[in-house]
Amino acid sequence: MRKRQEYIWCLIELPSGEKEWYCLSKVLRHALFIEKRNNQFWKQTMIGNYLTVARSKYINGHARLSVGRVEKIRIRKTGADDWHWSRNQFVTSDHLYDLKDAYNYLKHDYRWYNRLAIRVALTYWHNKLLQIRLNSKRYTIKKKRIILERKAK
Fold first, then answer.
1. What percentage of residues in the chain have a pLDDT greater than 70?
2. 3-state DSSP percent of the chain in helix, strand and coil, to 5
3. How big is the chain by its Cα radius of gyration, in Å?
4. CB neighbourhood size of 146 (10 A)
5. Cα separation of 128 and 25, whole Å?
6. pTM
């Protein structure tokens, strides 16, 4: 008897702050199931990455697209019945620090309005990453300053 197909669903945080569940594309799903066989922490390979997702129904093979961050991963027995499918392209947070390179990879061969939407979303996520890095450095400096002040007393 043939095993019933499984689908990987991701909770995606969008630049607007909304969170929605998306089913991973066939290519990504296949790659993650291979990863699952070899790595017990396989979910961590996608959590925190930035994934291109559809934001509307597909009409004549085209939909509005955006980029969201993967928050959680679940395995389900059913796929999406509507437009809640991911695309195959994603970037890691390390890759996103180079905004131009990340955009060149994700823009793919999409129409101009999707390229613009992807650029805006990537800029949002890039700026958020830079803010987190800056806050971390501020905290480290503050901690070192306090230690030095205590030693000086």
1. 98
2. 45, 25, 30
3. 19
4. 10
5. 26
6. 0.84
> Of 48, 46, 61, whose CA–CA distance to 9 is shortest?
46
What is the b/e burial string over 77-92, where b = at least 16 CB atoms within 10 angstroms of the residue's CB? eebbeeebbbbebbbe
d(CA 69, CA 90): 9
Beta bridge partners of 9: 23, 74
Residue 105 vs residues 40, 92, 96, 100: alpha-carbon distances, Å? 29, 12, 10, 9
- Considering the chain, what is the average pLDDT of its residues? 91
* Residue 93 one-letter amino acid: S
DSSP run (H or E) holding 105: helix 99-106
User: CB under 8 Å, gap of 24 or more: what pairs does 139-144 form?
Assistant: none
Token pair in block for residue 65: 């697209």
